[in-house]
Structures are given as structure tokens and as C-alpha cells.
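Limitations
The C-alpha cells in this dataset are predictions for the assembled complex, not deposited experimental models. Users should treat interface geometry with appropriate caution, especially where small molecules or nucleic acid strands are included. An illustrative entry is reproduced here so readers can see what is and is not provided.
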Amino acid sequence: MTKKRTGVFVCHCGTNIAATVDVAKVAKEMAGEDTVAFTQEYVYMCSEPGQESVVQAIKDNKLDSVVVTCCSPNLHEKTFRDNAKRAGINNFTCEIANIREQCSWVHNDKAKGTEKAIKISRSVVRRVNRNQPLDSIAVNVTRRAMVIGGGIAGIQAALDIANAGVEVVLVEKQATLGGRMLQLSETFPTLDCSQCVLSPKMVEVNRHPNIKLHTYSDVQELAGSVGNFRVKINKRPTFVDPDKCKICDHCTVVCPVVVPNEYELNLTARRAIYIPYAQAIPASFTLDEEACLGLNPIVCGKCKDVCEPDAINYDMRPETVTEDVGAIVVATGFDLYDQANMPELGGGQIEDVLDGLQFERLCSASGATKGHVLRPSDHTEPKNVVFIQCVGSRDPAKHCAYCSKICCMYTAKHAQLYKHHVPDGRAYVFYIDIRSGGKGYEEFVQRTMEDDDTLYLRGRVSKLYRHNGKVRVMGTDTLTGQNVEIDADMVVLALAMVPSKGTAEIAKTLKVGRDNDGFMAEAHPKLKPVESVTGGIFLAGAAQAPKDIPETVAQAGAAAAKVIALLSQTTLNRPPLIAKVRRSHCTGCGMCVEACPFIAIRLEGGKAVVNEALCEGCGSCSATCLRAAIDVKNVTQLQIHEMIEACLA
Amino acid sequence: MSEQQPYEPRIVAFLCKWCSSAGSDLAGVSRIQYPANATPITIPCTGAVSPMYILSAFNKGADGVLVSGCHIGDCHYIEGNYLARRKMHLTMELLKFIGVEQNRFRMSWVSAAEGAKFAQVVTDFVNDLRPLGPQDKLKKAVRT
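Predicted assembly:
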């Protein structure tokens, strides 16, 4: 092996690294390494002049490998590998030593930080000594996308992708498209009807030649990687053939089973056979297997008897569908924080204490009360309504630490809607702060206060309880320093937004990370806000963080653009860091074959052979091999041993 | 005793690329301070950590070795951390047999979202290693 000529480029990152790491010393120490032919420091290595200097230095000094000591490889590994390529050397001979996230930012002691930065840098220099020039592996791309979640985020992403000519598979857990937005009455700040905006999009999805819809379905399994995923979907039986169903409603009339209607947030009841909304897509009834008396004509069978088009089929069974796609958008949405967690506010047990979504259903013309604001306990018009913001949000000690972002706005909207429905009523809002950043948002809140005469009280509510047929609200107005007691006819809680039920499971299935609050984690908080940490899987809507409809639509469009860009390539470059067998050392014992999670190794003629298309480069094989006969390229055992030595030098 | 500087253990930390290395990045982004004793080596997966690496680190003078990966069930490579768990358990038994203190070798599960946990794991490990002093059971004698 001829001796390498490595260049080490030490970035100051302004003062992000230089303040707590002696960068000059790092460069000097690296210059003392046997294989280092060139070192340089610069204030911002990733800037245009910084990158140019790397390219120039590679050419001028005939360097064959590069180590950049800077931020995490997640940020600029590609940047500097591209520069290496631009300078005429192989991009896989360039490696990053992370001395920012893993060193300068976490150690204030400059002497110790510098010592550790030197160890990290030296270990990467030693690694690069044995890096081989490699070529990326080209793989074909499946030009098809999947969108998981049929709310506004999923609908928008699916339409944007489909309109670009790419086939989309849309998977929705519920019996209808529409998600949370379909439950809303009006939307802020324009008060346009939610369903009027959404329903045409739902119809468009259903009719779109490029969109294949699976409702009442769950994603079960994911295999493969970016460009070539294979997804297994479980389609639950609806027991009604949507092609035959004429939505005549004869079946619900005869169905003897009454259960709470979850689509109306349990404000009303439905039958075991039901349609979620009049505008449901697909426009078909669904038979709730758990509520039904028995799916058997001997037990009941009333719905089947009256169904003229013979659409009901008790013999439907769950179906597993396999779809091959190249990219996935996750848009699984949100739920509201569980009221049971706050017994001081009634814990969900007081009838006239509603959550925000229930109030939307009360206001909605298609809702339980046909758009009349009536309180659930006695169906009278409430004259005093208290709206409480930040319920469960901004409370790190007991509930969610984060701000749910949309509650200030929707509470202002609720107060307006209430005043429009009940002009002689009184609306109170308890708030901590008003956060109304957004186009037209502040003006909207001001209108609520001034034009609609809503009384805003700055303070929190400590207790809610039943009192003489009303709800006693015990609160504080911190601006006057007075305790406030209101006997309200109805109370509406702006509960925190939390990731929808099942987010943890789907995140696990898809291998996308979640953040501390349980939302899907973006790959980078600023530069990759729609990418998940897993290549080819993108995020949209409230699954990623609380956000309102315009932001959700924007993110869905961005995710769609990323999918289209990815799928517009005919081939993708896979990193070539995969396993390689040293045939002279291999005894054909087969232990690596058993260790491989991807079934990528087989024995042929008594030697292990790696299937390059299947190998993901995890290295389980190399850690298992007793004779060090199998290694992941550029992460070989010899390299790791030399890195260990450098860390302890 | 109070006059004496505490012993500064030298730790090699094998971090999987997908979870623990990303988690340590998050500790950085969140500016959570922890002792500088652990030098990270990022590997694709904890399943790629050969027991030889652990022994090699002790042999080269490490006072402690940390292997940190994705939570069980969350492995990017499906089951790498299960393999690692089994392998590391056996390694632990071997170290015990040789007479290396159990506290010198540690395995942890730190996800990409757990920056604070990563800082805590390192802090705890350093605190546990300090009273043990230098590791010399497996350290190669310096040739004269």
C-alpha cells in the first residue's frame, strides 16, 4: 500500500468550534500524522471560499484523501464528498470528523475539548488511511409513491404527486378520507367552511386516474429502502361493497345496535352499520364488526334483508395487499390530549365541558345539532360560554411542554362562531399569551375581542365542577390580580394536540424516529423539515408537529415536491458501503449467513457470497465472523482497531 | 482526598450511526454539557461491534467501553441490536471471568431524540469509572 496523502481541513465554524476547541492545535497535531500531507484551518469551511480552498488544496498538493473536521456528517458529508469528486479524487476517500456536535458544543473546558477533538480527528485520519475508492451502486427506482393518512396533509400530497404524473397509493385508517379537517366547521382566519374547501379535494382524490385508494386499511410491514420499498397493507373488511352501495340509508333504519359516533366525537350515536359523513369518500356504508350482533343472518341480518342492491356481504375477510413504491409520505395527523389526565377540569366527566373538536361539530351544519349551538346536557342555548386555552399545552410539569400552536387562533374562531350563533351570549377566553403570528391572524383575534365583544382574561383555570346545572369555573385574572368565578352554561377546552393514536407503531414499522413529544422527527430542524431520518420517507402535517391548515398544505406540497424529485430519477445511487468477503480467509462456516438480517449472504462453493443488491452494510456479518473474512467496505475491522488506538493515544 | 484531582477515565464509545450517534448530535445541538472523557467511534450498527473491539480497546488502555445503539425493536437494520445484546452479554461474562470490573463495560439504548439521555449515560459512566481508577487487567504492558 503506497502511503496516502491526506489533507486535513479544520473548520472553526465561526466560533461554534473555535471558542471551545483550539483549532490551530488540532491542525498542528494532524500535521504530525504520518500520512497527512496538508492541513488548513478556515473560519467557515462549508462556505464558497472554504469549499474552493478544499478543491484547490486537493489539486495543488496532489492529495488522495480528505478529512474535514467540522460539524456532524449528517450536515456536510455530502458537501465535502462532492468537492472531493470535483477535485478529481474519489468521493469515498473523504470523511468527516465530527468535532462540533460531539465535542465543541458539549464541552466548555477548552483544554479537554481540544484533547478530545484531536482524538476524534486522529481516529478519522487513521480510518481514511485504509479507505478504498468506491463507486456508488446504481439501483432502479420504482416510480410510484405511497401516502399514509387521508387527512388534508395526505390528500394534498397525494394530489400534488398524482398531478405530476406519478401513481400514488393512498392509505387511510378510517372508513373515509378527510381526517380532522372534515370535522371542522369553519376555518380561521377567513371563516370559510371547512367541508366546502375539503370535499372537492376528496372527490378529486377518488376520481384521479393516478391515485389508488385504500381506506379502512393499515400499514403492516415495510421492507426495502429508498427507491424500492415494499409495503404490506391490511385492508379491514367493511362488509359492504362500495360499488353496489347506493347510500340509500335503509340499513341504518333497521339496525338494532346503537353505539357512540366517534366521527361526531361521541356527541351523537350511530348504528353498527353507518356512513361517517354524508360526504364520505368512498361513498359507502361500513359495518362495524365489533358493534354488529354477529355478521350472521341467523343472529340478526336485518341490514342484509333490506339492502336492495345486495351490497352487504358478511363473508368479507381482512385482505393483505402488497404495494411496491419508491417513496412514502407519512401524514398520520393528530389527536387531542386526553381529558382524563386532568381531573381538576372534570376529567371528561362533565357533559357541558367540551373539547375543541366537539365544539366544531356543534357549530357545523352537518353536525349533531345541525349547526345550532346547544349544550349537550339539556339542549338549551348556552348564554355564558368559557373558552380555556393551553389546556395540557405549555405545562412541562404535568402535561405537554410544547405550545400546540393553533389553539389561540381556533379559540378566537370559536368565540366568533359562538357570538354569530348566539348574538346575545357572553364569551370568555382564559389565555396565557395570545400567539397569533400568521397572515391576517392578529387582526382576526382583534376582531374577536372588539367586534364580537369577547372578554379575554389572562390567567389559568384551576378547577371546573358542576354547580346548579351550570359549570362553575374557578380562575384567575392575573392582570387585575383577582380570582374569577364564572357560572358557565358551557366550557370549551383548547386541548393540546398530540400525535394520533398509532403514531408510535407506524413510526416503528417505517423506522422513522420520533421526537421527545412523540411526533415524527424531521431529519434536520431547519434544513430538512419534511424529510424523515430514513431516506425516501417524508413527513407532512400535524404528524410532524402541531400546525394549522395553511402550514400543513405547504408542508404536504413540499413533501410531494421531494417525492417527485426523487422519483424523477431513473436510477438512484446507493452508498457502496456494503459487505465484502475475503475469499482466502473464508472457511464457509455460514455464521455470517445466519447473522445477516437481509438474507444477503449465501454459501457458494464453500465460500460466502454477498448479494450486493440486498446488502445494507450493517456489519452484523463482520462482527460475527471468527476469521475476519468479511468486512463492510471502508468500515473494516482493521480500520476500527486503528481508530480505537487513535482514541487512546 | 478532597485535594486530589479525580481520576479521568478514558472511554471509547461505539455509537450506531442511526440512533446513538444522532442522539449525541442532538445533545450537541441542545448544548447539553457532559464530561469529555468518551471519544466516539461511529459504526453503522451495534450489531457490527465485534467483541474483539471491546477487548482491543481495553488492551490499548481504555478504562471503560460504551456501546450504544437504537432501542430494542427500533434497529435500522431490523435486528442488529438484538445480535449486539447477545454478543455484549457474552462479552460481559468473559470480562467478569478475566476479572475486569463489570462497571467498565456498558451498553445503552439511546435514540436520535434522546440527546439528554446520551449526556446522562456518559456522565453516569464517567462517575462510575472514576473510583475504579486506571484499568490494567487487560492493558498491554508498555514495552521497554
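Some entries come with short summary sentences. For this one: The mean pLDDT of chain A is 95.
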